[in-house]
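Protein modeling request. Please complete all fields; requests missing the sequence field cannot be processed.
Requester role: graduate student
Desired output: 3D structure, token encoding
Chains: 1
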Amino acid sequence: MRVTVERAALLRSLGHVHRVVERRNTIPILSNVLLRSDAAGLQLKATDLDIEVTETIPADIADGGATTVPAHVIYDIVRKLPDGAQVSLETTGETGQMVIRSGRSRFALGALPETDFPDLAAGELPHGFQLQAAELKRLIDKTQFAISTEETRYYLNGIFFHTIEAEGSLKLRAVATDGHRLARVQMEAPEGSAGMPGIIVPRKAVAEIQKLVEDGGESVTVEISSAKVRFSFSSGVTLISKLIDGTFPDYQRVIPSGNDKRLTVEREQFAKAVDRVSTISSERGRAVKLAMAEGRLSLSVNNPDSGSATEELDADYEAAPLDIGFNARYLLDITAQLDGDTALFRLADPGSPTLIQDKEGAPALYVLMPMRV
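Delivered output (373 residues):
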């Protein structure tokens, strides 16, 4: 194999694929990236047996061939080469090494044979649709923070994508919850998504998709089976991931429908006030109390070890006075996802879940469980 490629293209592609490679691996081949050159260009592939990322980039191919080299090492080498450099990759059959040359630099890396490299075959993917990269990014950005990190409830360790009939049309929904808060975002269902199975995309794959969406081109093709999903970006990157084999809970039952007390506040002012008063909360408690009365909202924190803090805000509230406590971190996470200038809270009582949105009927909806204060 003898290939010459631009440093910028190689670095960008290695950046896309090397992230799925775990730094500590008991199986040596999984520490490597597969490089394969043929008439189409230079293909790079990496996997951790749950996720596989592949990309093909233009290259000057003198001899075709394939080999695998340590992913993080080659990424660091290419990253440190000067801008605008040409990089030559060459394997010699006798030594089992890959030689990387650029300018006066020369590196020889130990290689493992391509035949040892596992292939995460996608198999049949009967359901497929296309959506804008920006739409996929929004679905992920606004729900990812609520993914559970509790390994025992593995079925909550990802985002649940599914289609549902709502408000007179078919919607594509993304839902995530950790039992304390729930995020639900929807968009008009893309053509071809009707009848797709509900799928739980795992946390690590979600994080990779989020990064790839940034420079993955204009559109994304999504193909689904009951066990795997493939995201093909218009820039030429493909990610295949296994799905979480579990049943996502019936989240509809958690979303309250009878919350009749409405509080509207300036979103940014509210977030800054929560941030200020929570400065003295204990790491364990992190509870902030919201006391609502007509036309105003009072936020307070009491910490027996370090004192207390209060702050008052103007608010649109006309119901009976209500005191309720929330985790300050969760409140800040949710308000950071809202797009509008205001935040609408729909409340019932101090022990019931609260609904949070930009405004009535917004495509993103959040549910937050209260805390005892």
